[in-house]
Design goal:
Chain lengths: 176, 317
């Protein structure tokens, strides 16, 4: 069976706009916010959210990236991955509210690795999680604070998030 | 990549990958906790049959920053002085469960023997073998050059168009050999300068230019001048009349330094014989990368240990 598009470009941009508003609402404004994207596609979504935050409340869109390759719990079982750079904004993350951004929330292991990676960088006041798609099947007690779309899926299905910067198209598909 | 024995035969993509990972490792050093959990539970053995300051400490620091356990072994004060062979030592280490062995040996080819013999099933890293190779030194030299040229935008780049002049005891230098293969593979043009007595016999087969006159070579304004140590411990013949004459003809003194372009870097793998192959003025000038090389050595060795031990490398690499 061919893959089915569940979110199109307009849906994705509406979801990111809503997530941005929710972030500002829960943070009571844009102060002391740091948006950290998890490479590769999470980093791009973080850039988008940062740009939307900036347009709503100038000065609130501080964006960085957080590479989690070295903190994965399956290192040594898979092929070695080349890490991506981690870029922490100049102000650091101490005392800030950090919003982690990833494309798909699945087992929760990536987020666990990201939490570990963050401990080595500083001590945020709070850490929130924003994802474009939550597909369920968590293996760890982790939950997202801001979700673009809940997408109940079976374990056999594959979910792809594609963004213009990398894939040339903008969509979320589900493949049986 | 299972072992790192030589820079000969390494592909450009592999070399760039190691240097890129080293860039990430360098960033780790600037963080609040300069430590990564990637090699938790792995044991790295420093097996040093020859004296070393920089390389051993650098490998130890690299392994520790990746959370590995480190065992240091030096031939002095071990059973080697009672006559234990490399084979027995290797099997002892295997029995203790070493995941990687970093070996420095006075005999060329010793790391290769360790890697191919089946005595030990660990990743082998050559940390200098006789007059053969010293691959991590070449990698850190390439990393240092790339960083000085490209700064923050170094990722993914090679050394195309960079002109490197290596001066001194080429004959005995494993650093020179490893650098020739690696730097040319990354696209740099390498020229070697030495007295004819310190040039290897097969020099015609190397992908380099050869010059016997330092002043002539420096007049071309190379981007990098790499001075090699005169290895008195390996010299059992009279290769040059005396130290003063060597210094005058092939040493980088203040006067030669002044003639180099402002942008040229001066490199030395250490330990330096100040006043022989390099003057104190050249060694301590802002153009000298000697201390950067030491700092970068830790990042590069972290990258090598990570790529060797944290999983199987991709097929292409």
């Amino acid at each position: 069976m061919p893959s089915r598009v569940v979110l199109q470009q307009a849906d994705i941009s509406r979801a990111l706009t809503r997530i941005s508003h929710e972030i500002l609402e829960s943070n009571h404004g844009g102060s002391d916010l740091v948006i950290l994207g998890i490479p590769t596609r999470g980093a791009i979504l973080a850039e988008r959210i940062g740009a939307i935050l900036e347009s709503i409340e100038p000065g609130s869109g501080t964006v960085g990236t957080l590479d989690i390759t070295m903190y994965r719990d399956d290192l040594g079982r898979n092929l070695t991955r080349t890490p991506s750079p981690t870029r922490i904004p100049p102000g650091g993350i101490d005392g800030k509210t950090v919003v982690l951004v990833d494309d798909v929330l699945f087992s929760g292991r990536t987020v666990r690795a990201a939490l570990d990676a963050m401990v080595d960088l500083g001590r945020p006041r709070a850490v929130r999680l924003a994802v474009l798609v939550d597909r369920g099947h968590r293996e760890l007690p982790i939950r997202a604070d801001f979700v673009g779309k809940n997408l109940p899926s079976s374990l056999a299905e594959r979910i792809h998030v594609r963004v213009t910067e990398i894939d040339g198209v903008e969509e979320v598909t589900i493949e049986p | 990549m299972r072992h790192l024995l030589s820079t000969r035969g390494i592909t450009r993509d592999q070399a760039v990958q190691i240097l890129d990972v080293a860039e990430d490792m360098a960033d780790v050093a600037t963080r609040e906790v300069p430590r990564l959990p990637v090699l938790r539970g792995k044991t790295v053995v420093n097996l040093f049959y020859e004296d070393s300051t920089r390389t051993r400490i650098s490998f130890e620091a690299a392994a520790k920053r990746l959370s590995a356990d480190v065992i240091n072994f030096s031939a002095k004060g071990s059973s080697v002085s009672k006559g234990e062979s490399l084979k027995d030592t290797a099997q002892t280490l295997a029995a203790m469960g070493a995941d990687a062995v970093i070996i420095r040996h006075q005999s060329s080819g010793a790391p290769e023997v360790l890697a191919r013999s089946g005595w030990i099933d660990a990743g082998i890293v050559n940390a200098g073998d006789g007059t053969h190779e010293h691959p991590t030194q070449a990698l850190l030299d390439a990393f240092t050059i790339r960083r000085r040229i490209h700064g923050q935008a170094a990722r993914g780049k090679g050394l195309e168009g960079c002109r490197v002049t290596i001066v001194g005891d080429i004959l005995h230098s494993r650093v020179a050999r490893s650098n020739v293969w690696l730097l040319t593979c990354l696209g740099a043009q390498v020229s070697l300068v030495a007295p004819a007595t310190l040039m290897p016999l097969a020099i015609g087969e190397w992908p380099v230019e050869v010059d016997y006159d330092l002043d002539h070579a420096l007049s071309a304004g190379p981007d990098v001048v790499m001075m090699l140590r005169i290895q008195a411990e390996r010299m059992h013949d009279a290769f040059f009349p005396n130290a003063r004459e060597y210094s005058r003809q092939w040493g980088l003194d203040d006067e030669r330094l002044a003639r180099l372009p402002e942008s040229s870097m001066v490199m030395h793998p250490g330990p330096m014989n100040r006043g022989l192959e390099i003057s104190a003025g050249a060694a301590d000038s802002p153009r000298s990368t000697v201390r950067e090389q030491v700092a970068n050595g830790v990042s590069v060795r972290m990258a090598v240990l990570y790529l060797l031990l944290a999983g199987a490398m991709e097929e292409a690499a």
